[in-house]
Records
---
Amino acid sequence: MKLKENVEKLLQEAFEENNSLFLIELIVTPDNQIRVVIDGDKGVSVEDCIYVSRKVEHNLDREEEDFSLEVTSAGATEPLQIPRQYKKNIGRKLQVKTENGKFEGNLIDATESDIKLQWKAREPKPVGKGKVTVEKEAVLEYSAIVEAKVMITF
């Protein structure tokens, strides 16, 4: 596991140098295939992936340990995984699955422990016939979220 520790250290240095980038996932397989998934507060460019890749690759010794390296960005359709991803998507529409149901709404807040969604719904009037549009809100803890994705609209 020395390889994984070295990669973690190099990634930390890369993210300190470019603090708008952050780690989503690091996988090091037994046969030394390294897969790094990154995201950024302002998105991720190809240059960002190249920068992180070079930071890792140029500081590891292939003579000591052979490896393959893949650095990718979190895709637009990938589920959100960490609070920092939610924070960068405040104002966007999310689809969130929990154990208790599904929610679709605008992400209006994200803290270290939960998110707040807001949406409009049509409900029967309290008195009389017909429906009325009401504002709904839900605060969901990260631990209750099974999956959350940004809804892409065109």
---
Amino acid sequence: MSIVKTASAHYLPLGKQGKGKVSTQSGALKNQPYGFNTRFEDEPGTNPEELLGSAHASCFAMALSFALADAGFEDGELSVEAYVTLEKEGDGFSVVKSELVLDAVVNGIEEEQFKEIAGGAKENCPISKVLNAEITLTHTLNK
């Protein structure tokens, strides 16, 4: 089974003065502005790193939720933030890290079991698999 989801971007004119718009198939994003000023300054809009972070955080949260349910834990709550790091490399830039920070409430689970399940979800969420950057996970388990 294959699932294909689409997103689109339009950018003009070229270079720093250009402005872009990004949209998703679902309509969750529709002509959302992005560009140099939204990426490197504080102009309203989005940027690729923020979009990647939202994809990684949501994918990991869903993967962990399913893994916990499969292990018999269905009462809980997960909050995930992703900090995506963009660094200058030579004449360009590279995404070098996606740090997942997890705050979890999972009733009845022990720390070691939670750590093992969370680590497996980090490794196996589809967005983690596609990234070549370092992927870290910091978590808090609240009981």
---
Amino acid sequence: MSNKVVRLLNNYTKKRDSEKKRLASESRVSRRRTMFFGSILLGIAIVLLLVAFNQKQANEELYSEVLATTEVLEDKNKQHSDLEQQIRQLNDDNYILRIARSEFFLSEEGELIFNLPDQEGEEQEQAEE
């Protein structure tokens, strides 16, 4: 005895077969749509990550430039305050007179100037001997 399954060809089986084909087709279309939109989403995510990475590098470079510029600005501000102090001193007659007397050995009338060696110079001469 041979156990063979014979397929019935009636309206119910035809309807069931067509329904299976339709569901398989819908499933295939659904998978394709999911893959298509998923790949678009993945592409957008990759582009956004690249943009974020490049922006981060640009921000780090700008931050280092800002730090360097800030250091230069602080140096220039210190130099500016030193120059302002020097201008105030040069406008003071007593300071100019003191500089002229010490640097250029200018004297008032009847005043004698003696040039004495510095203590540091004496210490260096003794150390050399």
---
Amino acid sequence: MAFGIKRDELKQWKKEVEAGNIAFLTHYWADDRFPQMNTVTKVGCRDVDKLKQWGRKHGLKPKWIHEDEKYPHFDLIGSFEEDILKAEGKIDQLKRFKSVER
């Protein structure tokens, strides 16, 4: 279950993904499989080859891509989420939801 984002933020993420750009969207998240995690960052791109290449740069496996027809994306949680957002200069997305050291 996702929550904590504005409709406009979701629309902008979808627009960027559809345009073939690497797009980031962080939000609160609750999943019984990962009770210690409370955020997820979706990193999407319509161009799946571009998304795979981006993922490899960060040690992500192509098989981890959520193969959504319109919005293929990686779901980043835990240390992957924080480390990648820092590396991409997007840590402010995560800081909205929890205390993160720079």
